[in-house]
Protein 1
Amino acid sequence: MNNRTSVALLLGVIAAALHDHADSFAPSPSLLSRSPTTHGCRCRQSTEASLFWRKKKNAAVHEGSPTTSQRVEDEEQEQPENSRRSFLTATATTAATRGLAATASLIPSRAYASTDKQLNLSDEDLKTIILHDIADKDFLVSADITRSVYDESASFTDEIDVYTMDKWIKGTQALFIPSGSRVSLVGDVEVNSAEASFRFDEDLMFNIPFKPVCSLTGKVVLTRDPNTGLITSYREYWDQSVNDVLKTAKFGKKAL
């Protein structure tokens, strides 16, 4: 897609979606005679190797015990070849771990004073800023928001979880690849004293192995504080379920 729950959950679901596509990456018959060492398959291979080892051990009681080197060689030959499903699961998990570890350094820490905020903007001025963030900065995938129009205590909610502003920014920047994604505004941005809202259509390229691109549509509602005019809540509504979104995954294709 850790401290930002959606990243872990999305990557977990993407890993499940990758399982559905695993057959298309299965090795050809000509490769089945090879025995490469694949780190991504270690968990599954270890389990099946363990079962195989027990069978070999039981057989040895009746047929005589071979040497250790012979048992290891036989075991390696019997292990499954380059399990694509296990590899995809492991790499997605690794990407999640690395992405989370990297998020702490993505954005410099900065304390925003009240003087940094654009208080009580007119509806038209706020609309101009939001349009700029959507059209010019692709903030839904880049997290490049105009922070001065958001209250520092603002909450960010999507179909997965609720986050603080800093966690949403860091998690979004770690999860998506803006250059491979597409964000389109559907209709106009509607703004009044209580809230701003707009609809979107987007293709999201995830920053994990194979760079899957998922498509979705939905709506964002930005709630404003009646006294300051600042945005205190970001709420994202998807037209599709999380599973349906991930079923649209395409691999190795940049969004147009």
Note: Strands lie at 150-157, 162-164, 182-191, 195-205, 212-224, 231-238, 250-251.
Protein 2
Amino acid sequence: GLDEAEGDAFCCLVALLEALGPPGLGGGADIFDRASRVHALLAEYDPDVARLLGAYGLETMPTTRLGVALCTRAGFRLQDCLALWDALLADPMRFQFCDYVVIAVLMLRRRELYQCRGDGGRLAEGLLLAPGEVAVTSVLRVAHAICAFERQCGPDSETPFPAGRVAPAPGAPVLLLPPTAALEAASEAASAVWGRLRKSWKAGRQAVRSGLQLVATGDGLPADEAAVVPPKQRSQHGGARCRAASVAVPGR
């Protein structure tokens, strides 16, 4: 009856927790090894997002906040958690599938995460809100695709792709890609310098055009003087104005 069903459910929960262990619930030193594996996996499937997280020191956040306790603390809706748990429990390597779910969520929200560049706080907030902003059917579809590829061509398979791909060793640093904060800052500085040079060049070019126009028309002389100055002297006067204007052009 109902008492037997409740007893069976409790025994299944105890067996599940024993198989999962404390690290999977959010504690233990092994959580950092798992974070390293998840970040390495993200670097294989979406290196741009991996670099973005690395630039702000958020490499472990997808694992420690989204992947712990079988994704029950990630922010999925209850019905979505049930669908995820069906896939987790049906998989022969069920708890590994949780890592693929985390990668799928990040890949599906990559555009929104990239919009948070330049603001680490917004990026962290975007990571926490990501599970509630994606359809669980899309998450499962991408996670199953990653799972199928990893089982056939992962680092532990007979035919890894790309060739020579290896899994990170236990205790390896989580930061697997060089941070790009310095490169982004240098790129922004170069863009600012180029903008100033381009603006100066445009101003100088406009000054030269004005000088050429003076040469052609003899403008710039007082009205009474223009009336008596011969055309030849008028051109010489305009040429002097042109040479003065050309000083504003960079490189001249």
Note: Residues 181-217 form the longest helix (37 residues).
